[in-house]
Amino acid sequence: MFKDYNMNQLTLPLDLEVKLQNNDIAFHIYHLVESIPHEAFEAFLRNEGCPAYHPRMMLKIILCGYTQSVFSGRKIEALLKDSIRMMWLAQGYEPPPSYRTINRFRVQSEVKELIR
Fold first, then answer.
1. Residue 81 and residue 96: Cα distance in Å, rounded?
2. In angstroms, what is the C-alpha Rg of the chain?
3. How far is CA 50 from CA 1, 45, 53, 91, 110, in A?
4. Mind spelling out the 3-state secondary structure of 46-94?
5. Which pLDDT score, from 0 to 100, does residue 95 have?
6. How far apart are CA 105 and CA 90, in angstroms?
7. Confidence bin at 72 (pLDDT 50/70/90)
8. DSSP secondary structure code for residue 3 in this structure
9. What is the pTM of this model?
10. Chain mean position to CA 33
């Protein structure tokens, strides 16, 4: 006798927060970034071009990658597709930010100041 195993059925809950433990690092990162005043993110506002990913979300995924000793933009991008905590922090953005977007974001002087 085997446990039920069906690859055609959706098994992840729609709310990924349910899959995280109560003391997961993702919650601490979330609260830390949300505690930053709104004014600190006004420098990222642009009125031209395609709408950008929210800087709070970008900062959350970068910090989460750093807490897991992942510093490569490509590896952070891979975590966005594989890690439940990263999916939750990104709130299911489709498509997730590419490694180029992640790297372009984190080299901005405003981001370096926020991280510091």
1. 8
2. 16
3. 53, 12, 10, 19, 20
4. CCCCCCCCCHHHHHHHHHHHHHCCCCCHHHHHHHHHHCHHHHHHHCCCC
5. 86
6. 15
7. very high
8. -
9. 0.83
10. 11
